[in-house]
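Format notes (please read before filing issues)

Several people have asked whether sequences and structure tokens are stored in separate files. They are not. Every record keeps both together, in the order shown below: the sequence lines, then the token lines. Line labels are part of the format and must not be stripped during preprocessing.
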Amino acid sequence: MQKVKVCNNSSGSRILAIHRHISTKSYENKNMAAGPLTTHVLDTARGSPASNLPISISVFKQHEGQWKQVASGMTDDDGRCPGLLTQANFQQGMYKINFNTGGYYGL
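Then the structure lines:
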């Protein structure tokens, strides 16, 4: 594992917590459905995964000239939202992910 230099302050401890989270996790989780588009959200203010964060995925429909929402969900305890798009419903194109941070922080 790579050494991480950490400052002796609260932001340094958050960085160390996040580093430990992403460097020691096994991504061979059999419950995580493999998909063509994935995300992993970390709450750097808390130094932990951002669980229960509402997210949505949209695809740009060029012939209509607009974005169309194709999936939505909430991040799990690990800050991931597996299975939003499957290989069967994935189309080549331009996608965007909306992270509803207002909903996450209760704003």
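For reference, the curators noted about this record: Residues 10-24 form the longest helix (15 residues). Helices lie at 10-24, 101-104.
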